[in-house]
Amino acid sequence: MNKIREKFPSLKIGGKEARIPIIQGGMGVGVSRSSLAGAVAKEGGVGIISTAQIGYDEEGFEKDQAKANLKAIRKHIERAKEIAKDENGECHGLIGVNVMVALKHYQEHVKAAVEAGSDVIICGAGLPLELPELVKGSETKIAPIVSSARACRLIFRQWDRKYKRTADFIVVEGPAAGGHLGFHMDELEEYGYLQKKDKESMEQANEKGQAAMDEEIQKIIKLKKEYEEKYQCNIPVIMAGGVFEYKDVKHAFELGADGVQVASRFVATYECDASEAYKQAYLHAKEEDVQIIKSPVGLPGRAVRNAFVEKTEKEKCKIQKCYQCLAKCNPAEVPYCITKALVDAVKGDVEHGLIFCGSNVGKIQEMMHVEDVIKELTGEIER
């Protein structure tokens, strides 16, 4: 750990601190729960649990999804905090949750996480304009996920005007990220992500997308300084999307970021909560298997091309049950049920389920332990 701290400072968020400036991105359904988040926090990073249909395997889920999810949020936060403790009962990282603004029970998920003692809450898939009210009076730190300085400014202004406070940190997510993306299809096409993929074209798209995000990050760093001065605080900026190896982490700090968020690298780990079949799908994926899809959430998403994706391109999947996951979802109009698609995949039906991934999934070649992934990311060991 000393070698890591010589290269990168700890991540300080308000009065909380993670020894390693790495946030493990939230991945749902069921990919990042207590096992993965706890393992990351034990190594000194920030372990993030996705609350999206987190209770899919709880008793009673099929009958009452909302109740099962709230129960699971509390259970997995508590379990992650236990896993994160070292032999002396101490934790050198943080445990948090990712809550999608697009969820039907978004507010309830945030409040449940606060009550369970979540250190941080990160919100994306929409603008969390009312988030400060939901955590009022707690020690939980909050951050929006943004993809542009424009969105960041909108949130800062709203929180400043209405709640007289600012963000505790900011996650800036680029177009190379996995899952739901905060970009329009025409932007993704401009970067080159919609063209046929091979190793060379994927690298070119990532370079173009990263260059655009570098500019946005610089704008956001300049913007956040205004609010740091006003509120006499530090607002760390976290770079996310396409962060895969040490050189990416180093680049983030050279830009002026305070940390990075990494998701896909942690899927092919022994500690990840997903099924073995799901992890193997990552290991077998190639650059040409990565595809941008249209999600029922209303955002573009990045996923592994499989039989399910091919089927949804040709026909609408029959929806036999609504799982009450999204605030704005009409089963009669959406192409498929995203809950069923994600649950099927995480349980192991990788051909008939939806497998979200980052643009660099083709680079993942072997199963690893969380400890070793973090050592690679921080340059302590070379790949």
Automatic annotation (TrEMBL):
Gene Ontology molecular function, alphabetical: monooxygenase activity
CDD domains noted in UniProt: NPD_like
Top-level taxon of the source organism: Bacteria
Coiled coil: 63-90
Pfam family, one: NMO
Gene3D superfamilies, per database record: Aldolase class I (3.20.20.70)
Keywords linked to the UniProt accession: Coiled coil, Flavoprotein, FMN, Monooxygenase, Oxidoreductase
Matching PANTHER family: 2-NITROPROPANE DIOXYGENASE (PTHR32332:SF18)
Function (record text): Nitronate monooxygenase that uses molecular oxygen to catalyze the oxidative denitrification of alkyl nitronates. Acts on propionate 3-nitronate (P3N), the presumed physiological substrate. Probably functions in the detoxification of P3N, a metabolic poison produced by plants and fungi as a defense mechanism.
Name the record gives this protein: Probable nitronate monooxygenase
